[in-house]
Structures are given as C-alpha cells and as structure tokens.
Amino acid sequence: MRIVIECCGASQRWCGAESVSLDLGETATVSSALDRMAERYPELAARRETLAVAIGDQIVHAGRALAEGERLALIPPVSGG
Length: 81
Description:
The chain has helices spanning about 10-15, 30-40, 40-45; strands spanning about 1-5, 20-25, 50-55, 60, 70-75. It is α+β, with helices and mostly antiparallel strands.
C-alpha cells in the first residue's frame, strides 16, 4: 500500500521535504511507517521517540493499522514563549 507522510515543523528539515510517499506492506502500522522513515532519515531516527503522529485531526498510537492512501502527519515537539 502507498501512504503519504506529511512533515510538519522541524521534521521537514530532518527529512528534507514537506511530504514523503512510502510503499508499505498490506499489514502496515504507524510503527512500521516510522521504522521505514527512520531507515531513510537518520536525523528523524534520532528524534523518533519525541514525535507525535496524527491522521486527520486525531493523534494515533504506534499500533494503529494503516490503509491505502492515508496521510500521516509527523508532529515534532514544540517550544516557545
């Protein structure tokens, strides 16, 4: 199946793109998508544990199954004042 990862905030810099398409197996989960991203992008891999992942307007857990054509948003931690 093919999904799209949308890179928000600093994750754009870590991945070098606003979005990335991934081809995954039929039983892919959020965790397996993050595994693939970590293989491709070492800067993202180093920060993986701090990322939140959203589908639509919902933050999702790592075990959530994915479907063809879904769009995941990587949300890095935010700080400021």
